[in-house]
Amino acid sequence: NAGVTQTPKFQVLKTGQSMTLQCAQDMNHNSMYWYRQDPGMGLRLIYYSASEGTTDKGEVPNGYNVSRLNKREFSLRLESAAPSQTSVYFCASKHTNYGYTFGSGTRLTVV
Amino acid sequence: AQRVTQPEKLLSVFKGAPVELKCNYSYSGSPELFWYVQYSRQRLQLLLRHISRESIKGFTADLNKGETSFHLKKPFAQEEDSAMYYCALSGYSNSGYALNFGKGTSLLVTP
Fold first, then answer.
1. Beta carbons of A92 and A29 less than 8 angstroms apart
2. What is the pLDDT averaged over residues A42-48?
3. CB of A90 within 8 A of CB of A43?
4. pLDDT bucket at A111, cuts 50 / 70 / 90
5. Closest CA to B25 of B58, B75, B72
């Protein structure tokens, strides 16, 4: 049981490049989330998906897009990366009656 | 509006001393509260949920609805407790239903 798997673990991008962060969970959870973690800011919600086929904006959605490809997978796309998007990105999923499970994170640097 | 406040960015205690990490919240409803721990550059791990009322690694937390607090306590701190601790509230906000984090408290336990 892998839980929540994120790829890649590390990435360096040049300003203006695009990339997709992948997230998959094998726990049959309905809800999935993308957060970014910055020093002194805690974790802030970027986008979430309450169920397959639905996505909604969180607190800091600008510059990002998401796709809930199926129940297992929830990807985060940066169309034109900016230095302000340098952060650690965490994906999470939630069972209806239990807590949230987090992936190991993607450390992204935009230069 | 939903809010989680952790007033201390850094808390330093000696090994064997009691430790209390403070968390206050605001939420118009019945909150679901959590404590997560993040060891150096690792994923977030669930430490406690208020509804399970259990003790993990010697830590406890009691929900005080009158004071809107969910402080994390441990009677005798250990060096391996050094980590980042996040208090989080699961509920509805302008961003939908998700986990809303405080900014975190870095706990340092020194010998």
1. no
2. 94
3. yes
4. very high
5. B72
Query: Looking at the DSSP assignment, which residues form a beta bridge with residue B49?
Result: B34
Is residue A46 within 8 A of residue A60, CB to CB? The reply is yes
Number of CB pairs < 8 Å for A and B?
Answer: 54
Confidence grade of residue A40 (pLDDT, cut at 50, 70, 90)? confident
Token duo for residue A82 = 């900016």
| Exposure on the CB side of residue B87, measured as CA atoms within 13 A | 29
Write out the two tokens for B73. Answer: 């306590």
In angstroms, the CA B96 to CA A97 distance is 17
Is residue B11 scored above 70 in pLDDT? yes
What are the tokens at A101?
A: 């499970």
DSSP state of A55: -
Peptide bond into B18 cis (omega under 30): no
Higher pLDDT, A10 or B53: A10
Closest by CA to A20, choosing from A93, A84, A73, is A73
Which of B9, B34, B43 is opposite residue A104, by nearest beta carbon?
A: B43
Query: Residues of A numbered 45-74 whose beta carbons fall under 8 angstroms of chain B's beta carbons: which are they?
Result: 45, 48, 50, 56-59
**B72's tokens:** 């994390």
